[in-house]
């Protein structure tokens, strides 16, 4: 399912969906995705640069290619090296990790439970040199403190887990927005794939 999203600002965007999809829950989820995606964009970029086609998967992941890479695509058992910039939707787009600033990309293996499910799903099909934006709902996001991408700074880890694993807040939001629609656990990731290697 492809949903064109044209972002005009953090809190205002237009979305084209099929009539059957125009339910309250979907509208709220689109609003969450819009906010998160708008936060990842530089405010001075052109309107064309702010237009992305998001694919919505059955798990609730939303992803859009910013640029397409070349070469071998990431598969279920690939070894991948990538940079990532992550933001917390529930904290007004607060940046909780940026490997470019850290000068230390992630080097992980697919299919080894090393990454949160939404990131692993979002990496599939990417090629080296490509960039992709992921909007990851809490159901396939951080469920504990053991899976990447984990911030390397102690303070950033505390802020991340204090938000996405805040069960009281998630329950309050779920009661107001509907089960599965909490904002606290939603993260937005911009992923830049550096290399893809076959499994060992």
Shape: globular
Radius of gyration: 16 Å
Number of strands: 9
The CATH architecture of one domain comes to Roll
Please give the alpha-carbon distance between the first and last residues. 34 Å
Helix content: 10-25%
CATH topology of one domain: Chitinase A, domain 3
Strand proportion, as a percent range, falls in 25-35%
- Which spans have pLDDT < 50 for at least 5 consecutive residues? 1-31, 39-49
Mean pLDDT, rounded to whole units? 79
Which structural class best describes the helix and strand composition? alpha+beta
SSE sequence, one letter per element: EEHEEEEHEHEHHE
**How is the biggest beta sheet arranged?**
9 strands, antiparallel
Instruction: Just give the CATH class of one domain.
Output: Alpha Beta
Tally of alpha and pi helices: 5
Describe the 3D structure.
With 200 residues, this protein is of the alpha+beta class. It has a domain at 59-197: Chitinase A, domain 3 (Roll). The protein is built from 5 helices and 9 strands.
Brief description of this entry?
This protein has 200 residues and is α+β, with helices and mostly antiparallel strands. It is 24% helix and 28% strand. It is globular.
